[in-house]
Amino acid sequence: xxxxxxxVNSARINERVDFLGIIxxxxxxxxxxxxxxxxxxxxxxxxxxxxxxxENGYRQPIACHECGGKKFELMTDRSTFTEIQFIEVGKPxxxxxxxxxxxxxxxxxxxxxxxxxxxxxxxxxxxxNKNKFETVVVCQMWR
Length: 143
Ligand SMILES: [Zn+2]
Prior knowledge:
The protein is an all-beta fold. It has strands at residues 2-3, 16-26, 30-40, 46-50, 72-74, 80-90, 97-103, 117-129, 132-142. It has no helices and 9 strands.
């Protein structure tokens, strides 16, 4: 069932929604660390640490399980990365905007779609970045 964009909010976290909206803003795609593989600089023990892809930067292990060391190096060749891109979707004559996120999408959203109406199908999620929460829709399909 298609809902009005003004009804897309934190009350629907983890729900699937679909709504119509006008594309009002497009951010550049970003490459984010998904699982970091870190090597301890003192004992060379390797640590894997899943990341929050919505956060700025990435997290290192707090301390090495083996030697207690606190210096690590990210092994980019063994880590996994993902592409994310945010767009803003709105409604004429309304201040309501919804942030929509594409994760590992085949297509990169470019400026051609600015001002166009799209029907968005996705899931409402709560994201955290530096202790701030935000409600976004992870887009699964749009047309
Ligand atoms: Zn160590």
